[in-house]
Prior knowledge:
- This protein is an alpha/beta fold.
- It folds into two domains: 6-224, Spore Coat Polysaccharide Biosynthesis Protein SpsA, Chain A (Alpha-Beta Complex), CATH 3.90.550; 232-286, no CATH class.
- 38% of the residues lie in helices and 23% in strands.
- The chain has helices at residues 16-27, 47-54, 70-83, 108-118, 181-187, 199-209, 232-246, 249-269, 274-286; strands at 6-12, 35-41, 60-65, 94-99, 102-104, 122-130, 136-138, 141-143, 150-152, 167-169, 176-180, 213-224.
- α2 (47-54) links the parallel β2 (35-41) and β3 (60-65).
- The radius of gyration is 19 Å and the shape is globular.
- The termini are far apart.
Amino acid sequence: MAQSRLTVSILNWNGLELTRQCLRSLLVSTVVPDKIIVLDNGSDQNEAAVLRTEFSTHPVTILRSETNLGFAGGNNYVIKQLQTETPAETAYDYIMLLNQDATVEPKAIQQLIAYLDTQPNIAVAGPLVLNPTGTIQSCGADINRWTGKIISRKQNQTRNTAPAAPELVDCVIGNCFVMRTSALNSLGLLDEQYFAYYEEADWCRRATAAGKNCAVVPSAIIQHSKSGGFRTYLVTRNMIWFQKRYATAPQLVGFFIYFWGYFIFERLKKGSPLSDLIRAAKDGWLNRNIGKA
């Protein structure tokens, strides 16, 4: 049986040193990806030129977009590039979307592929994600259907609290998102309406609706520095869109009450700018600024 093939998509955005570290971790994995595509996603400087000089050999390919296409649009751009290549070059079984501020432990890819190879009903799998401090950032996530919140499992707990075996989850976090190509072909690309945040939850919901599952593989470990932080406008707006798309009528009523009665005040207490919250609420409920940041 031929070894399963994996392509990795990395979006670089004003993060040259982070992307360097990410690539180096991939290239010393026990199973090196068959192809690694880095899209310089509208960085202020042409960081693609620097990366091409430093990583000019197989399996790394460096692309450049002059504008920021967002997480969904940038990864879709990479996937479409793959789909235009000859069949022999696109015979990959899985595609990993990997954040530039993540590094993979040596056996992470091997563990993820080994699990997916034996579980044909899994559309997407993700690893155990650690903070730089060694505590757990996420072990997959649950989606609260009443509030729209994506709740990372085991967040900030010690590493030894992680489950011993793979588990089904509502959502795989997008910092390391390994899609089965056959599922991608049937479910379609990421929804570019979101630009960034919630597109992975949306894809996972589509997979679940199609009878597929999402899973976390705790033996596969990555470290994620979470350099992007909480983007108040995007997260808030996209949470509204996600709920409007997937919540039942009673859930949407509950979400509306939760949003105006609790969420806004919770975010203000955590320092989110009121102007961002107001803009997000307007654009989210009125379906404005679709596909933009």
